[in-house]
Amino acid sequence: MTQGTTTGAPVGLDNMRDIKNRADQNKAKAFGEYLWSGITQVTADSKYQELEKELGAVLKDTLEGLEKLDHFLDAVEKLTVTSLFVFTGRSFLPQGEIITAARMASPLLIHFKRNAETFFLPSLSNLDVLVFQLDKYIRITEQICAKMEK
């Protein structure tokens, strides 16, 4: 996932937060306009649909990134069930440190055991949850990487 420039968060997360902010602004603006005229509801609906379409594009990129992350998570998971005795002796691994690190990181893998394609659907009404979950995935991935680097 590519790092953003303003907050240091990945671009997808920044884009989702931006869409949420614009959706919230459009709600307030649309409500004020609705009080003055019923015609503006059509405008508000079209803006809402436009934001959902933009969210869909962001989520497509996010899902591609999560798919790439799955390869790493699968490797960590496979290392957690690998026996240390296989790599002892004339091993290329220093005292099985990689497997030990993977075992320490393995409890964090449970957070990724959901179908991302069905969870990350482009719905503005669910955007708070999507932003929270993606941010959580990022933080947990950073924790796993930190454990594996040690």
What is the molecular shape?
Answer: elongated
Task: Sketch the major β-sheet.
Answer: none
Class from helix and strand fractions: mainly alpha
Give average pLDDT, whole number: 78
Protein name: Corrinoid adenosyltransferase
Describe the structure.
This is Corrinoid adenosyltransferase. Helix content is 69%, strand content 0%. The protein is an all-alpha fold and 150 residues long. Helix 1 runs antiparallel to helix 2, helix 2 crosses helix 3 (97-105) and helix 3 packs antiparallel against helix 5 (127-149). It is elongated and about 65 Å long. The model is unreliable at 1-6 (pLDDT under 50).
Q: Can you lay out the helices and strands and say which pair or pack?
A:
Elements (H helix, E strand, L loop, with lengths): L10 H26 L3 H41 L16 H9 L10 H4 L7 H23 L1
Compact summary:
The chain is mainly alpha-helical and 150 residues long.
Throw out a few tags for this protein.
disordered N terminus, 5 helices, 150 residues, 69% helix, mainly alpha
